[in-house]
## 1
Amino acid sequence: MAEQGHSGGIAEHLQYWSYSFDDSNPFMQIHLDTMLLTVGIATGLILFSLYVRSRLVAGAPTGIQNFMESVIDFINQTVKDNFPVHNPLVAPLAMTIFIFVLLCNSLDILPAYLMHHVAGMFGLHTFRQVPTNDLNLPVAMALSVFILVLYYEFKLKPGHFLKELLLQPFAALLLDSKNPVVKILGVILIPLNLTLKLVEELAKPLSLSFRLFGNMFAGEVIFLLIASLLLASNLESIMSVGGFVSQLAGLAVGVGWSLFHMFIGLLQAFIFMILSVVYLSIAHQPAEH
Amino acid sequence: MSIDLTFIAQIIVFILMVTVLWKLLYGPLNDAMEARTAKIVAGLAAAEAGVEAKEKAAAEIEAQLEEARAKAHEIVTSAEQRAAEINEEAINKARGEAEQILDSAREEIGAEAQRARQSLRQEVADIAMLAAERVIDAELDAKRHSKLIEGIVKQGFDAA
């Protein structure tokens, strides 16, 4: 019974609450649920920051300041372990990524249909409750990090980066060989090098964003599956023996998956942060000669 | 599951969030932590300097005590020496005075004895004269024979 009650629901729950500026162009729409939640989280974080800042003490920290200091200390340590030079931007960036992604992922702890039903009360039929499930958010963050990486690559070692882009992995053919034929071969191989290097570079933001998106999306789909397969949709099915057992099993599996998924959320936030730091750190590594 | 305007909006949200959280959350907390670290480092250094200063002061006190002890010992030694000298002087002086007193007493005794001897001699001569007058009667001239008698008496005393 339950399956029938929610079978159409899974696809329905994976729809965004969106507003389209131009129906003919799929790019010209905006996901209002993602925007609402991310702006909400961002506003909450800013208010929280103002609150923490107003209660800062110079002496021994207590309570929330103590907690935030340990978070910042952890991030500072991570950045320090990975970074060859000091860049004041990296630690705040890493902190923002970690806290923001963690908070977005943590919204998954809310019951699968809760946001949907709350939105339903306001007359909305679709509402996605985890912003990191929206590919736009991970890609936006990964691309921002990638652009920053490119900026530092060009700023710190422009020649080296161009050389890598055009000549790797066959640089020796053009640069070290004295044979003109081999040199010509090196020039011919430049497009191949470029292609290989571009794939290598583009894989970074792609893997960074799809890793987060895939994990969180799969997590939510599993939540919806648990709910649609095991949870009853009406009182009658709960009252039956099979329905009751199914409810208990659904609760147990749901709680188990929630705990596991929370762990995944934390892990993904950490992975996104540490990979961003590592990519930036590679851009800061001195050029090898 | 498509890329759309949300992507652009999310980039803006993300960049704004990084900027604002840097200024409002990371900056103040990191500054506070760094200030505290610096304070703790300075405090530890000050504590170490304090311990060093204490050790130095203790060593100085010990040295001063040692010096004072040596000085006190010197003073006591010289005082003892001086006392011994004074004692010696006093004894010597007393001894000299006693000697002097004895000498003068001896001289006085000698003079007294001389005087006594003189007067005794005179008295004996007088008695002898009287006796002789009585014995040889009044005819004997006292003035004429006194010289003789005195000589006899003196002779007798000297013999005695």
## 2
Amino acid sequence: MSGPFSSLKVVEVGELTSAPYAAKLLADLGADVIKVEPPGRGDRARHRGPYPKNEPNPEKSGLFLYLNTNKLGVTLDIFRPEGMALLERLVADADVLIHNLAPPEMDRAGFNWERFRQINPRLVMTSITPYGLSGPYRNREAEELTIWSQGGLTYLNGAGPDTREIPPLKVFGQQSGYQGGIHGAVATTGALMAQLRDGEGQHIDVSVYEVCASMLELTYVYWPYAQRVASRLGAKPVQPLEALECKDGIIFLCAIEDHQWKAFVELMGNPAWTEEELFRGRGRRTANWDAARLFVQEWLNEQTVQDLYHKAQAARIPFAPVSTMGDLLSSDHLKARGFFVEIRHPVAGTLKYPGPLFQMSRTPWEIRRPAPTLGQHNHEVFVERLKLPQGELAQLQEKGVI
Amino acid sequence: MAAAPLDGIRVADFTWVWAGPYCTLQLGYMGAEVIRVETRTRLCVTRHMTPMADGKPGPNRSGYFNQYNQNKKSVSINLHSPEGRAVAKRLALASDVVANNFAAGVMDRLGLGYEELRKDKPDIIMITMSGFGETGPLREYVAYGPSQVPLSGLSALTGYRGGPPLHAGFSYGDPNGGIHGAFAVLAALYHRARTGEGQYIDLSQWEASVAMVAEGILEYQMTGREPERNGNRDHWMAPHGLFRCKDMAEKVAGRSIDMWVSIAVPDDEHWRRLAAAIGRPELGTDPRFATLAARKHNEDELEALITQWTSQRYAREAEEALQKAGVAAAIASTNKDLFEDPHLQERNFFVELDHPEVGVRRHTGPPWRMTRTPSGVKRPAPLLGQDTDEVLARVLGYSPEEIAKLHEVGALK
């Protein structure tokens, strides 16, 4: 058996998270992915960590190692004509080109659809950029924090006593990058279906700003439907749906449906307060949650997290504990499903990585190789595949193009 | 003109709430015919959540439902009735893809399990997007999108310095599970187009969420310690945070709206640009701030200096001044800011179609554009059950008499 994309050839010109994640999704399902990095410094993810013992080393960045499994790695300065010429030769033979060069960089390199379609009209080219390739913000500078904020997601998060003066809070990690990547991979795969059918490629313009704004749940529509600003401040639209303290830690309560609430009331031993008119029905429970919370908290003070989690789940109430990294790595459930996979990297050593994002009955997810070291496959790709004479490779390396 | 990428693909959509509907929304954007199976006996939660158009309640008036079910058809089938289950099975077998986000085992109990369906249609593609997956000791456990945030490890890593674990502020497990589900379905469709083979996909929303925390998982192994919560700060950038601006110029519903600008400075060059933009060019070379190490060391002071400048400005003014100087800065948008944003409008991100009950509302469309194949939103979200008779007649070949009979016995409630 081989992966669903085992016939695909992909070229990635990507840094940090979005384009690398999109290409990883294809690579882990079988695609042959050549990752192009700038000579010298390489992908910015190599310089972010996390690192073993917190000692920076571009071959040991956890973010880079995770995002670049199953790829061949080459270095190429695409801002120089010799570099662009080699990139064109890679693209000529590819089904997909995925990149996250920012629009001003694209302009500077002459990296665009018009150029590549002439070389390869079957190509699917996917551009994942902060604001998209058109519109007044096209050339803006962006980082993970600013695009997540512009997309409306930080405004919804954060809490504390005088909340109005405590800043909205970014969620951990590279979430806009991951989401830009997976949304880009979805659009790319759609275009691959059309490529298979029509024999023609096309250009996809993915805006990470728009990706974030696509995930706002009910909060975006509060404006067009009710002319109200949705905020992290003030009451929630539905309760109980929040984290509260138990005796030994935090449990996340979720009992928003009537049958869940009923089961929770039973779990608490049917206390008299739950029969008050104030708490009958989803709407009133939500409106009067501040009062209900006091009663619930009193009961929670006597509970332990793991015990309550399993008791609630046995009654089909979707409570959840706050998992630590250690909890996840030692979870019997995740172990039984083979979720974490051990990968040996020549420099970074052996570590457990998150594995298959879903299990397909016929086409496996698999690790064939760890993330490449910088320029690891220059010889294999340029000399063996593109038939560049060995002497020319050495020359280009000397000039810093490779 | 070319056909849409998924033209001719039919999806029997048994999903509900948000994760599943977010998956099938993507397939609909690309031209698949998505037929959502609903029932009056148990309405989708999102049909009765606020906001309702103009504050008037009704199953067709929910902004939440109408956002994430654009392009779809709605058939009403009562899965508690045997006749209803027979209709549902016929629909599944007339489809290329069957999608659901029930807990493990539910589709089997409805007689709609993969093994059952593949007997009659070997190339069918089926996806279950459950909370914990179809195997493993916790397979019967249930999870909602918001609970995936603590479950996945994201909460443990998110929060103000020294404070407790916090949330993401939205039901992140849902769109994340749904979008990964859409990718899995597309991969299976691609495989089927090449080989004729169908397959079953088991997606655990928990696992798809844990993958978003990979850096934390690796850091724990690399350092032997749980990563610390660090507010909005970043180990490799400073300043890196959200800074208070003047309240929104107008009040909304009588309340003033707090506004913030986010700023991220990745290197010393960008720091010098920022210093100049806030009228303090000397800070660019000030030893307290000239290098990343110095800025990290004096970060409280650094943030106070920037707040001095931002707090006297509207968020948009701060954003524009900093962007003009080449600094990554963006307002923390509210829904109102997004709704009014000229960039999103110029890029035709919004969809404004006439919905029979709520009229024209500005919804968001796909976050990407394709140059060759048409895609996007062709019709607004369906009224509850609006396509029942049409789908039963055209797609499933029931006669008008049979349909009337099914209504009569309560199979189509």
